[in-house]
Amino acid sequence: MNRLIFIIMLIFLFLNVNIIAGEYASGLRNSETLEKTLNEILEFGEDADVDVKLLMSLLKKDDKSSPLVFKVIMTVGSDIEIASAVKIAVKSKNKDLLLLSLKTIENLGDKNEQADIIIALMNSKDKKIKEQAIIMTGKLKIKKSVDKLIVILLDSYVTQDIFLNKLAAKSLGEIGDTKAIPALIKGLFVIKKFKGTNNNGSVFTYAKNALIKFGNASLKELIDTLNENSDDFNSFVKEQRLKKTDIKFNLIVVISELGGKSVYPILKEYMNYEDLGVRVLAISGMGNLGIYKSVSVLIKKYNKLKKQVFKLKNDVKIRQIVEELIKINEALAKIGGKKADKHISKEILAKPLKVNAVKYNDLKDDTIASFLNFASYKYYYVYKKAYKQAKEQNRKKANLKYLKTMEVSRRCKNKVKCYIKYLDLKEGLQGDKKELAIMQKEKAIYMMAIFRKGKSRKLVIDSIFEKVLLDYSPSIRNAGIFTFLRIGNKSDIKGMETVIKKALKDKRLKREISLYENTLAKLKNK
Known about the structure:
By secondary structure, this protein is mainly α. The chain has 29 helices and 4 strands.
């Protein structure tokens, strides 16, 4: 009996599918019911029984319904049928269909055919199609497109939107052909400022991110360019009338982000450069890279500047030196070690800087704040003294917050699991309580950079992947990146790639993708 019921159900299902298929066929042939039928097929999904040959004939008509027909073929067609549909769609005059076909062009099995179609569409007069073609060259790593992308990257005319320059830089980084490096270095200086148009902006960030992906190959070229040894770049400078200070600044930004401790001689040289911005950048680079041998040099410079400041009368020059002093202490805090910590502890407890009857409280305040995340439990009592020293109500309130933050390292000392507990914020916190909880979480993340080996390191890395890099607070994510770069190694590459995949699916984290990709590139170059 049960077998009979089962057979009847199978027959019913078979007849029903054919009825549906028949309904689809008649609906597809009728122009009035075509759109409705196509949407019904999409809703039914990949198991819909449809005559793909009929869909292909509809696609060839190249009319307003073609984009929807194409989507249906992408859903129900076989690999061969999808490839055939793409070949038809890339020749369409319908802009929407053409854009859809570009996004699915990877379904074409023939790489050369892909490349030829995409490179041809990069010449399109339609901006959207051109954009999508440029994006696909990077996604599919089409080396044949590099020369064309370089032309787009360095196009300085108002007739080309700045966004195309940026996309070209991004795709060149994804393709990874080293012949693009000189052009990307020039790309650091492509700026558009056309009055009365929306065509304004800089390619710097996109070119920088692309250069980071090349690792040591681009580092060598960047250093040669900085040392003015590139004839090609020197000609570009004359053509564009670039300022020497801007050149040094942009190149040192990329070198300090891309390089490791090997770039110390360059940073050391430029920490004494004539321009304040360049000097400060070189100092910050030493801190971000954690270059231990720079500690003595930084402290020596600090003491020299502090003596020099009392001889000055010009308020602007005094303010510039104070800014340098602040940056030196920030760098020393990030580098750490006995010598750096001793210097900063002394500065935290020193009287506020006073020059020509003017107090520069920010030197002391910023030193206290910058050391906070990196100071171990041994420096809890330095913060306690700083709290007792503070007389003004606002400073006392800030120092109490710092003291409570320092309690994290005081409690945990060298216990990795203790720090990990701080990564879970209590729900429902508001105002000062929430701010303190975030500060304590940041503190825990930065302190976890001390665990560089064995099971403790693995626990830290896992917790950063799971609870930190996908956090919605930028300060928490930045703390995670700092610690990850300090203790991460090539065994963590897969984990970072997984983080990037998760971030791509979260709209709130889209801006962080380039930061994570740069972190991954740095990890690969370690």
